[in-house]
Amino acid sequence: MTVSADDRVVNVGRAPPMAGWTAKLRFFQGISAGRMAAVAFIILLLAFLTVYPLSMLLYGSLHSTPPGMAGAFNLDGYRDVLTRQSLLSLLNTVGISLAKTIPSLVLAVLLAWILARTDTPFRGALEVLITLPFFVPPILTAMAWGMLGNPQVGLLNQLYQWVTGSSVAPINVYSYGGVVWHMMQYSVPFLFLLIVDAFRAMDPSLEEAARMCGASRWRTFRTVTLQLMLPALTGAAILSFIRGIENFESPLFFGSPAGIRVITTDIYDAINQSSPPRYQYATSVSFVIMALLFLIVLLQWKVLKGRSFTTVSGKGYSPGIIKLGAWRWATFAFCILFFVVTVVLPVGQLLIGSFFKFFGFYEWDMLTLEHYQAVFGSSEFWRGFGNTMLLGLVGASLTMVLGGAVAYISVRTRWRGRLLIDAMAWLPWMMPGIVLGVGFLWGFALLPHAIPIYGTIWALLLAYISLGTPLSVRVMSSAYGQLSYDLEECSRVHGASWLQTMWRIMIALAWPSFAVGWVLIFFGIMRELSASVLLYSVGSEVLSVVLLKLWANGNAEQVSVVGLIMMVMVVLFRWVQLSVIKKRISTL
Amino acid sequence: MVKTLRTLLVACLAGFAVPAQADDNWDAVVAAAKKEGKIVVYDMALGAPYFVAVLKSFEAKYGIPVESLDLRASELAERIRTEQSAGRFLGDVEIITTTMIEEQRQNGDFIEKLPPIPNAANLRPPFRADEFSVPAFVQPMGILINTRLVKDEDVPTSWADLNNPKWKGKILSDDVRPLGSGNTMFAILQHQMGGDFNEKLAEQKPVFSRDMRNDARRVARGEYPIYVPQIFAFTSDLKGLPVKVVIPKEGAPYAEMDLAVLKNSPHPNAGRLFIQHFLSMESQLIYANAWMPPVVAGVAERANPDAQAFANAKLIGPAKLAERPSMMSLAKKLYP
Fold this sequence. Notes:
The complex is a heterodimer.
Chain A: H1 5-11, H2 21-62, H3 76-81, H4 84-117, H5 123-129, H6 138-149, H7 155-164, H8 176-200, H9 204-212, H10 217-228, H11 230-246, H12 249-255, H13 263-272, H14 279-304, H15 327-353, H16 370-376, H17 379-412, H18 418-426, H19 433-445, H20 457-481, H21 485-493, H22 498-527, H23 530-535, H24 543-552, H25 556-587
Chain B: H1 2-21, H2 26-36, E1 39-43, H3 49-62, E2 66-70, H4 73-85, E3 93-97, H5 98-107, E4 133-146, E5 171-174, H6 181-193, H7 195-203, E6 207-209, H8 212-221, E7 226-231, H9 232-235, E8 243-246, E9 252-261, H10 268-278, H11 281-289, H12 308-311, E10 315-316, H13 324-334
Helix pairs in contact in B: 2-10, 3-11, 6-7
């Protein structure tokens, strides 16, 4: 008799087979009530965190004025979306996002395979270093690339002209290519972080079986490794594509001078640079984007439905490392090249610039430590840093717990309501951040005054949990999708309670993904601005607001100092995380 | 000599004008403000050092702590609107552009009528208080040039000089199509320089960007020889770089920031005292030394030597809210 993965999912949560009928009945009754309460609690929580602010925005899209102002219900906002300019911007946005997601995914897969599955030298250090650009505020890398790749006096063009003697400037970051390149700076490390643990957690016996049957290394990679990675890859690619659609900084900095318009810059103009602000258009176009993105998610569900992607089973295994021989230096060189181009060039600019009075003016008499002194001596910086650390630690932990619970229900059970929960958890990711920030402002401000959220640090915490939940759910869903059901069944058969099984099997095996998700969400909170700037109050300033103020007052060098501090933290966090993973894997 | 004496006379008169015209009960206002314990200011200064200096001087003088909520203009207006619509009256005073205040008044009653402010009597032309607001400071704009790329004889002295063919494709500009400094310059120069000025400027193919602070540095690094519009105050902290801001002979277009009391202000006396303090000689001098023309009389003359030219700059404008839609659509037409 064979039992499908679906059949086995149905059995998850059932009583141990050795129990008597009475005990079994009691157990079921207990589970049902507990399950119902758990599902109801999560639905209510997600409804407040995601559906409530979105309902405010939906109102905004259907009403001629924002909540609290006299106006009329109409569809003018949606009508404006159907103009030629809006549709062109939408097409442009999709094109740019696709243009950056596809090469980013290829690069990320290659890097993940090299660093997780081969004997490339120094791969531990490289794994930390190549992800650094993701954690630098985009405004800083934009400035750095502007200095490197402008056609007039860009350092790279000058280097090319010096080497070749030509007067041609081959690089122009103020172009489509520049927009895509700047976005890739973030999407490659983002995708890499999301998929590298899936590569690491794979049982190599599946690949070995393919090799034993005569498949070449390439065919094995294509038909076994990549196929098994499908949930992680498609989930990560979709997240990256959505982030590309919602990206704002790259088109603003590099697209605007070239006349490139995308939907986020249109939304920014509608909200921040129109008179009066066009909230109805901004919210309407956001819902159109949301509907389109939901179709993509549905497609992923359809593609993955009914297929098993189990790579971690009850059988013991040790992660296989492919010995590349002399080729390992080629893979090493590839990683170093990637590191130099994406990290050393832009971050080097920031590092050097932070020791001079002005970026780009590297003269001896301009050498200074005043930017470091200004940052470390600023009470506002330390207050923002303290608030952000608190919100980051608590927010990332709560978000991962919530995401873990949602992912478990969605992937590992057949509980009624699981699809609703999964869909609700996706919602915030599909709404551009600038617009969602307004949704939180409207939603929290309009709560009854007896609920003390608006104007407190709680408003920020709840917004951060909402914004991070989709990512935490995707990360944990991919991890749970790889775990064989026999692990849970085995635990239950041996008498472990559901909680014990969760703690000792599910959480223990999925925690590397949990840790990656935690780091991504923690640093996402550190960088989040759209909601923060609308929800912060005096005393609850966060780092992103402090950075905005510094930037607005022309202190780019001080912003760089803060960016570098953030990178040091990333290196520290990732080093601890990878050391622990290594230790755990060696003891498995 | 005569000029110095006149300056001293104006300064003395300005200094004495306050007690002479002050409300008899002003001491009571100060006492009530101190009793209220704090003031909450909603502003768009985003922690600008000169603004922080004014807050500190207020705290030092009256012992009343100031809570400053810094937001960008449109976020500030929306936050006030949302809070008041939800029955939350948290702020006392706002500092925002004149046009935003006009817009607030069109959309609802978010601000109170301005209470008597003795120092408002010291406003210098063309600045004047109205029923709801009083000017706080102005942000004039000029032309930024790279002194290494623009020869002395080529330095533009008029806005019309931007249309010299030699600058074609060499002007970096804040985008004039959306709301912001670029559009403010566009609208004011449309009136000042005549309709064909903007048409000719469009033929110069200026390159648009959206980050004024970084754009000035791009000019300093030599990416472009010219940037418009350059806010004077943003140039004062570029000392040491090869850039210079030019005030064209026609004058400097400007944006005006006003002070207004928010509806149901929880600390009305502290708010009133704060506005009074903002219009004081002391506060206005802080702004003048940061290269912004003061809005009250008798201050510009006392500014530091490096700030004199900017504090005394000829101003043109401001842009009018009623004309904004037509100006924005004209800009979009000229720069499709």
